[in-house]
Amino acid sequence: MKKMVLLLSLLFMPCIGHAATGDVLFNCTFEGTGTTASQVVTACGAQQWTIDNSASIVAGAGHDGGRAISYYYPNAGNEVIDLFQINNINKNEVTIEYWEKFDVNPSNSNVWNVKSTRAYTNVNGGADFMGGMMSLWGGQMWQQGNFGSATMTTTSYANNVVIDPAGYCTGSGTSYNCPNGRTSMNWSSGFGTSWHKVRIYYKVPASVSAADGITKVWIDDNLIYTLNNIKGTSTWSPYISYITFHPSDDFFATSGTKFPFHHLYDDIKLYDGYVPPSTGGGTLTLSAPIGLKVVAL
User: Fold this and answer.
1) Distance (Å, rounded) from C-alpha 158 to C-alpha 101?
2) Residues 109-113: what's their mean pLDDT?
3) Which of 175, 285, 191 is nearest to 225 (CA)?
4) Distance from chain centroid for Cα 163
5) Backbone phi, then psi, for 289, in 5-degree steps?
């Protein structure tokens, strides 16, 4: 007597260096419920941390003509703690994509820097962040973190890498050793006053001694640099706990450089796993099951 056996054929795309699902963990277009920045951010599922209350939702100011969140900094000359935070991520690897714009008088072109995003590995340790993008007017980019060491490979979109004795990296050309938890370079195209799409992939080391963490940074779908062999610290957890959007720093303190500007964000998405550009927000390495058949045995 023949038995009918259900065979499930799971066919997957080849996996090359990353495991990914592409699931969207967080998505905020700022078009949703609410009129204030705090209301919109909260409706998106983030936690608002506004101390100076400078953030607002601006209609028609987004990269696509929709609403965007804008942080306004007056002629203050000090650090402004104004941010929101995506909590309870708890993933070993994530990809974050967002649009960013600096609306400022071009005559004040090379005198400030801004913290953009930080990915934290330990919910109890405020300093335990794997990496933070910082953008200096004119194209300078800082990748900061508390990692123990890393190796960096740059592309043609990066130049003027900061090397020792400034305490950052050693090397030349496209290959560098970065032992101090930070890198700095110019993005060759610069930021200007227009919108740019930023994408960052973070993979946390499996353990403090594993030294297998990764960070990849794209701007406008162009890969800028990759950090490999990232080694953590003794306080790191093996996953990203939360991510902050923190567009502030002590960037007006120098004499003669105090001036107002706006820092805007739009269309923020957080994906589970490794999702590079041109995937449509889907998966790079793993497809859904596509074969299901019944055979007689």
Assistant:
1) 19
2) 59
3) 175
4) 23
5) -55, 135
Whole-angstrom Cα distance, residue 270 to residue 52?
Answer: 26
Q: Kindly report the CATH class assigned to 26-280.
A: mainly beta
Which residue type does 275 have?
V
- Is the whole-model pTM more than 0.85? no
CB 173 within 8 A of CB 62: no
* pLDDT tens string 187-219: 877 777 889 999 999 999 998 778 999 999 999
23 in Cβ contact with 52 (< 8 Å): no
Q: Using an 8 Å Cβ cutoff, are 187 and 224 in contact?
A: yes
* 77-99 b/e (C-beta count within 10 Å ≥ 16 → b): eeebebbbbbeebebbbbbbbbb
Residue type, 104: V
Pairing of strands 182-187, 158-159: antiparallel
